[in-house]
Amino acid sequence: MSNTATTTKHRAASDGTLHHAFTPRTRAAFTRNSEPGSEITGYIVAMEEEPDRDFYTKAPKLNEDGTERMVPILIIQTDGTTKPYGPGLRKLWVRSGIADALIGACLDIGTRKPAVGGKVRIRFEGLGEPPARNFAAPKLYSATYEPPVDEEAC
User: Fold this and answer.
1) What pTM was computed for the model?
2) What is the CA radius of gyration of the chain?
Protein backbone atom coordinates (compact mmCIF):
# COMPACT_ATOMS: atom_id res chain seq x y z
CA MET A 1 0.00 0.00 0.00
CA SER A 2 1.41 3.39 -0.94
CA ASN A 3 1.46 6.34 1.39
CA THR A 4 -0.68 9.11 -0.16
CA ALA A 5 -0.74 11.37 2.88
CA THR A 6 -0.21 14.98 1.96
CA THR A 7 2.08 17.16 3.92
CA THR A 8 0.77 20.43 5.22
CA LYS A 9 2.81 23.34 6.34
CA HIS A 10 2.14 24.55 9.86
CA ARG A 11 3.18 27.88 11.20
CA ALA A 12 2.85 29.54 14.56
CA ALA A 13 -0.32 31.55 15.12
CA SER A 14 0.20 35.28 14.92
CA ASP A 15 -1.10 37.72 17.49
CA GLY A 16 -3.73 38.87 14.97
CA THR A 17 -5.01 35.35 14.40
CA LEU A 18 -5.21 34.64 18.12
CA HIS A 19 -6.92 37.99 18.73
CA HIS A 20 -9.68 37.17 16.22
CA ALA A 21 -10.09 33.61 17.51
CA PHE A 22 -10.47 34.60 21.16
CA THR A 23 -12.34 37.88 20.79
CA PRO A 24 -16.07 37.43 21.33
CA ARG A 25 -18.22 38.35 18.36
CA THR A 26 -19.80 41.74 18.84
CA ARG A 27 -23.23 42.18 17.26
CA ALA A 28 -24.98 45.45 16.53
CA ALA A 29 -27.23 46.66 19.34
CA PHE A 30 -29.91 47.85 16.90
CA THR A 31 -30.48 46.80 13.31
CA ARG A 32 -32.61 48.13 10.49
CA ASN A 33 -35.27 45.60 11.55
CA SER A 34 -35.43 46.75 15.18
CA GLU A 35 -38.98 47.40 16.30
CA PRO A 36 -40.06 50.41 18.40
CA GLY A 37 -39.83 49.43 22.05
CA SER A 38 -36.68 47.35 21.67
CA GLU A 39 -33.94 48.30 24.08
CA ILE A 40 -30.48 47.32 25.20
CA THR A 41 -29.20 47.47 28.76
CA GLY A 42 -25.72 46.71 29.98
CA TYR A 43 -22.33 47.92 31.12
CA ILE A 44 -19.91 49.77 28.88
CA VAL A 45 -16.81 47.56 28.59
CA ALA A 46 -14.98 49.55 25.89
CA MET A 47 -15.17 52.75 23.91
CA GLU A 48 -13.69 52.68 20.42
CA GLU A 49 -13.87 54.62 17.19
CA GLU A 50 -13.81 53.71 13.54
CA PRO A 51 -13.87 55.67 10.30
CA ASP A 52 -17.34 56.83 9.25
CA ARG A 53 -18.40 55.44 5.88
CA ASP A 54 -20.95 56.52 3.31
CA PHE A 55 -23.92 54.14 3.55
CA TYR A 56 -24.17 53.51 -0.20
CA THR A 57 -20.60 53.75 -1.54
CA LYS A 58 -18.76 52.62 1.62
CA ALA A 59 -16.18 55.33 0.90
CA PRO A 60 -14.77 57.05 4.01
CA LYS A 61 -16.39 60.35 4.94
CA LEU A 62 -13.99 63.25 5.31
CA ASN A 63 -13.93 66.30 7.56
CA GLU A 64 -13.54 69.79 6.09
CA ASP A 65 -9.76 69.59 6.60
CA GLY A 66 -9.51 66.30 4.66
CA THR A 67 -9.03 63.95 7.61
CA GLU A 68 -11.24 60.91 8.06
CA ARG A 69 -14.39 61.47 10.11
CA MET A 70 -14.48 59.06 13.04
CA VAL A 71 -17.55 57.53 14.74
CA PRO A 72 -17.47 56.71 18.47
CA ILE A 73 -18.58 53.19 19.36
CA LEU A 74 -19.66 51.80 22.73
CA ILE A 75 -19.15 48.09 23.37
CA ILE A 76 -21.84 47.01 25.84
CA GLN A 77 -21.92 43.77 27.84
CA THR A 78 -25.56 42.68 28.06
CA ASP A 79 -27.15 40.38 30.61
CA GLY A 80 -28.94 38.10 28.17
CA THR A 81 -32.30 39.83 27.88
CA THR A 82 -31.60 41.20 24.40
CA LYS A 83 -33.09 38.50 22.22
CA PRO A 84 -32.76 36.92 19.66
CA TYR A 85 -29.01 36.55 20.25
CA GLY A 86 -28.89 36.10 24.02
CA PRO A 87 -26.06 37.25 26.26
CA GLY A 88 -23.03 38.88 24.78
CA LEU A 89 -21.39 42.01 23.58
CA ARG A 90 -23.28 44.60 21.56
CA LYS A 91 -21.80 47.36 19.43
CA LEU A 92 -23.53 50.75 19.57
CA TRP A 93 -22.54 53.43 17.06
CA VAL A 94 -22.99 56.80 18.74
CA ARG A 95 -24.44 59.04 16.04
CA SER A 96 -27.60 61.10 15.46
CA GLY A 97 -30.56 59.90 17.59
CA ILE A 98 -28.49 57.64 19.84
CA ALA A 99 -25.98 60.44 20.43
CA ASP A 100 -28.75 62.91 21.32
CA ALA A 101 -30.32 60.47 23.79
CA LEU A 102 -26.99 59.57 25.40
CA ILE A 103 -25.89 63.21 25.71
CA GLY A 104 -29.22 64.05 27.37
CA ALA A 105 -28.87 61.12 29.79
CA CYS A 106 -25.35 62.21 30.78
CA LEU A 107 -26.40 65.84 31.25
CA ASP A 108 -29.36 64.71 33.41
CA ILE A 109 -26.99 63.22 35.98
CA GLY A 110 -24.34 65.94 35.71
CA THR A 111 -21.57 64.14 33.87
CA ARG A 112 -19.96 65.15 30.59
CA LYS A 113 -19.70 61.81 28.80
CA PRO A 114 -20.15 58.07 29.36
CA ALA A 115 -17.25 56.09 30.79
CA VAL A 116 -16.11 52.48 30.78
CA GLY A 117 -17.91 50.71 33.62
CA GLY A 118 -21.03 52.88 33.39
CA LYS A 119 -24.45 51.30 32.98
CA VAL A 120 -26.49 52.38 29.98
CA ARG A 121 -30.00 51.69 28.73
CA ILE A 122 -30.93 52.76 25.21
CA ARG A 123 -34.49 52.32 23.94
CA PHE A 124 -35.70 52.71 20.36
CA GLU A 125 -38.88 54.75 20.78
CA GLY A 126 -40.03 54.96 17.18
CA LEU A 127 -39.80 57.16 14.12
CA GLY A 128 -40.05 60.94 14.04
CA GLU A 129 -41.27 63.26 11.32
CA PRO A 130 -39.16 63.27 8.13
CA PRO A 131 -37.27 66.58 7.76
CA ALA A 132 -38.47 66.96 4.16
CA ARG A 133 -40.42 65.14 1.52
CA ASN A 134 -38.66 62.00 0.22
CA PHE A 135 -36.42 61.87 3.31
CA ALA A 136 -36.34 58.95 5.72
CA ALA A 137 -37.94 59.47 9.11
CA PRO A 138 -35.36 59.87 11.90
CA LYS A 139 -35.17 57.15 14.54
CA LEU A 140 -35.93 58.40 18.05
CA TYR A 141 -34.19 56.97 21.11
CA SER A 142 -34.30 57.51 24.86
CA ALA A 143 -31.46 56.71 27.24
CA THR A 144 -30.50 56.45 30.89
CA TYR A 145 -26.96 56.37 32.18
CA GLU A 146 -25.41 55.52 35.54
CA PRO A 147 -21.71 56.39 35.92
CA PRO A 148 -19.22 53.92 37.38
CA VAL A 149 -19.12 53.91 41.16
CA ASP A 150 -15.66 55.51 41.32
CA GLU A 151 -16.52 58.40 38.95
CA GLU A 152 -17.47 61.76 40.44
CA ALA A 153 -20.16 63.97 39.03
CA CYS A 154 -19.06 67.27 37.47
Assistant:
1) 0.71
2) 21
